[in-house]
Design goal:
The chain has 19 helices and 3 strands. By secondary structure, the protein is mostly helical. It folds into 2 domains: 335 residues, no CATH class; 69 residues, no CATH class. The chain has a 3-stranded antiparallel β-sheet, with helices on one face. A hairpin with a 2-residue loop joins strand 1 and strand 2. Helix 15 crosses helix 17.
Length: 424
């Protein structure tokens, strides 16, 4: 018991303090996002999001206490069991869940609701880490690769059925974990290259120019590179695949994506085409952030926020409130906190003595990075609006609890890293 009782001295307090700072700043900005100066309101008011968020924060500290008290082996031992349970829950959600914001992704208990997909990220991270940490695991084994993609693909598909595309896309971040554990970098480069081609196809109106560019590059490689027949054939196959990606873009946009998803792509490419329609969210978001200038308008002084120009201000677009009221300095501080947390999580992951703990740590870093980059990116028009929260800042119990569990399970494992079975 003495080892468990000494947990407070072994916790990584740098990460803990970063967590407390981010949760505290998030709470203040949630209040700013819903504040109405014409009404006598306080940050403690339970009728406001800030008051309810305070309850969620209090519950988070109870969750943290439970995590640090539970034996460290619990998370690895029951990872597969939890994974099976969450898959069953995700299967049931479309049938028994309630719809919120167009997504049937919530389980309701009276006026209280939870979003299982937020906890699916945590449990999937444990399952991925357990498989990577298994005896004899090799990332260059095709069977192992297929199993890993199946582990992340199953919850991703079930969440897509709930019409929650944003949360489903978060599971693609696990590829970064696979890469750290030895996944061939070539496949990662191919995926990034395909994404670039997809975006270029959207930006270039006439696709014939892209096909011509591919042909020119192919001929140049063959002529000036003096390639052998086998290399020429591989280049030709690659060029055909790229052309296939280009030709598939129109089909995906018009026949696969739903109207609101098409509008999000259009808003990303050209928000000025319909500033009062599909471009409204991004346009108003950029106005709010830009109007903050260098030092911001001041706490509770955001006009874009007060008059509800930006939708979902306390959830998906919480960064707009930060940018408007605290300006470049406040935005830089928030981004700095996230970068510091990401670097700390990577540092913690690298000092682990077991593959399970290390892989889990990189899963934490990957999920945080995806949420941080995409959420802030969509508020300034760099990414389409896909509706995912900014960790520790956005309003919501499920997201706060999910991110809290994600981080503190890692801190628990790290506190007992000397006792973990060494399999690196």
């Amino acid at each position: 018991m003495r080892r468990e009782e000494d947990i407070a001295g072994k916790l990584d307090w740098v990460a803990v303090l970063l967590y407390i700072a981010m949760v505290g700043l998030g709470w203040l900005n949630i209040f700013a996002a819903v504040y109405d100066e014409s009404v006598n309101q306080t940050i403690w008011d339970l009728s406001l999001n800030s008051g309810r968020q305070l309850i969620f924060i209090a519950a988070s500290f109870v969750i943290i206490l439970a995590i640090v008290v539970i034996d460290m082996r619990f998370y690895e031992t029951f990872a597969y069991l939890f994974f099976g349970i969450i898959l069953i829950v995700l299967i049931l959600v479309p049938f028994i869940g309630k719809e919120v914001g167009g997504n049937k992704a919530w389980l309701g208990f009276g006026s209280f609701g939870v979003q299982p997909s937020e906890f699916a990220k945590v449990i999937t991270a444990m399952a991925v880490a357990k498989f990577i940490g298994s005896v004899g695991f090799r990332m260059d084994n095709i069977r192992n690769q297929l199993i890993l993609f199946s582990i992340i693909g199953a919850p991703m598909l079930l969440i897509l059925l709930q019409k929650d595309t944003g949360t489903a896309l978060v599971f693609t971040s696990f590829v970064l974990v696979f890469y750290r554990e030895g996944f061939p970098p070539f496949l990662l480069v191919v995926g990034i290259f395909a994404a670039i081609i997809f975006v270029l196809t959207l930006l270039v109106p006439n696709q014939i120019y892209l096909h011509a560019a591919i042909a020119i590059v192919l001929v140049a490689l063959i002529v000036f590179g003096k390639k052998k027949l086998r290399q020429v054939m591989l280049l030709a196959i690659g060029a055909l695949l790229i052309s296939g990606v280009i030709e598939s873009v129109d089909y995906v946009i018009t026949d696969v994506l739903k109207p609101h998803q098409q509008n999000r792509i259009k808003a990303l490419i050209n928000p000025d085409a319909d500033p009062l329609g599909f471009g409204w969210n991004v346009t108003q978001s950029k106005i709010a952030i830009g109007s903050g200038g260098f030092t911001g308008k001041g706490f509770l002084e955001g006009t874009q926020t007060k008059f509800d120009f930006v939708p979902e201000q306390s959830t998906d677009f919480i960064f707009c409130t930060i940018g408007e009221e605290h300006g470049w300095i406040g935005s830089f501080l928030v981004i700095g906190l996230f970068v510091a947390l990401l670097l700390r999580v990577i540092f913690i992951s690298e000092r682990q003595k077991s593959r399970f703990a290390r892989a889990y740590g990189y899963s934490v870093a990957s999920i945080f990075f995806f949420h941080f980059a995409v959420n802030i990116g969509m508020t300034i028009g760099l990414f389409p609006v896909i509706g995912i929260p900014l960790p520790f800042f956005s309003y919501g119990g499920s997201s706060l609890w999910g991110f809290t569990i994600l981080l503190f399970v890692l801190l628990k494992l790290d506190a007992h890293r000397s006792q973990m079975l060494q399999r690196v």
